[in-house]
Specification:
- The protein is α/β, with parallel strands linked by helices.
- It has two domains: about 70 residues, Arc Repressor Mutant, subunit A; about 110 residues, Rossmann fold (3-Layer(aba) Sandwich), CATH 3.40.50.
- The protein contains eight helices and nine strands.
- The chain has a seven-stranded mixed beta sheet with strand order 5-6-4-3-7-8-9, with helices on both faces. Strands 1-2 form a two-stranded antiparallel sheet.
- Strand 7, helix 7 and strand 8 form a beta-alpha-beta unit.
- The longest helix is centred in the first third of the chain and has 19 residues.
- It is globular and about 60 Å long.
- It binds adenosine-5'-triphosphate (ATP).
């Protein structure tokens, strides 16, 4: 399934979240047009994504929600789960730790890193804060494969380099500063300010 388009992976994750909510409400089956409505996309897109993972529903009942949740899990999750680190234990980093832990079972934030001595050797929602100088050591020790960058924008490129050198496999850059990483590292950049400004633009022009 390595050949699945990135956008499909992203949507599968979103479908699963929607499906889990439906399952919790006691719903057992769902049609592609229902998923499409929740996700604000077309039923064709939903059917195409789900076909790509080799699943088909029935004409009469649609998709079996639990089967689809399990199948998406088989594709997206790893059996033993993945460990995540947050670099920059400021307001955003702490919010990420707080929000994330307890929500997802297959991804767990296991360490925080910061350069400010006041942030070190403290526990944030169950996650220990380490000095940034210990990045490589702890990443290895705790088998961390993903890092979330929440330092101030100016420090992001330097942190990305350190993470790459420490052997990280995936990075979610939460700062507005784009970073460069070698092609074998999966990089996702999410700039909250740009996203919000995009929303503001459409609000203004409507
Ligand atoms: P707080 O008020 O708790 O410091 P903040 O959200 O105002 O939080 P920011 O200035 O956004 O903090 O910085 C985020 C975090 O990144 C801080 O905890 C800061 O100490 C840390 N930080 C800044 N530069 C680096 C760096 N080069 N390496 C590691 N951590 C860093």
């Amino acid at each position: 399934m390595k050949h699945l388009p990135h956008k499909t992976i992203e949507r599968l994750s979103q479908y699963r979240r929607a499906l889990l909510i439906c399952a919790a409400k006691g719903k057992t089956h769902i049609f592609s047009h229902e998923i499409a409505k929740i996700q604000h996309i077309t039923p064709v897109q939903v059917r195409r994504d789900i076909m790509l993972i080799g699943y088909t529903g029935t004409l009469r009942k649609g998709y079996n929600i639990q089967e689809l949740i399990d199948l998406i899990g088989d594709i997206i999750d790893t059996k033993e789960g993945l460990n995540v680190a947050v670099v920059g234990i400021g307001n955003l980093g702490r919010a990420m730790i707080n929000y994330f832990n307890g929500k997802r079972t297959k991804l767990s934030i296991v360490a925080g890193f910061d350069s400010n001595p006041d942030k070190i050797d403290r526990i944030y929602s169950g996650v220990k804060g380490y000095h940034i100088d210990r990045l490589a050591e702890i990443i290895k020790e705790e088998n961390i494969s993903i890092a979330i960058i929440t330092v101030p924008a100016g420090a992001a490129p330097e942190i990305a380099d350190k993470l790459v050198n420490a052997g990280i496999k995936g990075i979610l850059n939460y700062t507005p500063k784009p970073v460069q990483v070698p092609s074998h590292i999966y990089l996702e950049e999410y700039d909250m300010i740009t996203s919000l400004e995009k929303v503001a633009f459409f609000v203004k022009t409507h």
